[in-house]
Prior knowledge:
The protein is of the alpha+beta class. The protein has 10 helices and 7 strands. Strands 1, 2, 3, 4, 5, 6 and 7 form a 7-stranded antiparallel beta sheet that branches. The longest helix is centred in the middle third of the chain and has 27 residues, at 98-124. The chain is flat.
Amino acid sequence: MGGCLFLVLAVGFLGNLLAAPLTVSDLMAAQSPPQYPAPWEWAVLVAVSAVTALAVTWSAGRRRPGRAPALAAGTVLLLTLCAVVTLRVRDLVGTDDPTLTGTLQGLAAGVTALAFRGVARRWERGRPLPGEVWLATVPFRDSDEEARHYCVVLNRRPGYADVLQITSQNKDGRPGYVFMPNGEWDTVSGKGHWVETASRPRRVPYRNFLKDRPQGPCPAETWRRLRRRSAVRLPPSGRGGPTAPPRGPETRARRRGRRTQPPQARASGRLPWPGRPRRAARRSARGCLSRMVLLSGRPRRRGAARLDSR
């Protein structure tokens, strides 16, 4: 009996925090004479509700990097649901007894928050989300065979997830691998791990994930590096797609050279080094000056002869 009473009080207290802007304003309006919250009081009530909704939403989901947008959306959704339920209870019960109305509003908002938390936790169970480390059967790069590996989930797709394979072999100093601290996802082996980024992300169907919960979150610094690399990564292996053009200093230099070259060079496909079109233009001008001097019959100067010899 005591446990049920404590549960009801806890749910009511949680609901009162979530519905504080509405319940407090109703109680103040029921006074004689009616009173209304000041702007700074409204700000405090809204802040209390927002912080409470944020805490409930944070406890409903798994910790992982890059969770801020989903956390903000869940907070706004929970506040909206609590406000709708609170207003609905006020319409059904009325405002003749403000104490009873406020109590029922708090209980309704608290039950809504608990239901929201349960649905969110149920929705995330068994669903790999970006920024998490999972154990799955990952396909090989150049064959249809598969093997059990830990992997980092990059994106969720309809029917499959894009992942990057994790290896415990020492790849220190080798290009195409990012070092990954053990962090919270591996507290037993004590080995170093590297994430393979040289190849395209692998496509793993959801049925190939071997557990109903992740091994842990990807370390924040490693996740930022993986996201920067995946922003310019080729499409995932398995179903192809247009190959992304290579990027780098040489490509940018070649593009600058192509923009500065004359139309004849563009048609021929020659890519001059920076400054070549200008030197060619100066030599052409000097040649025209020398021909004009010859046609006019005037003796050529020593500088013009040196230009012609070039």
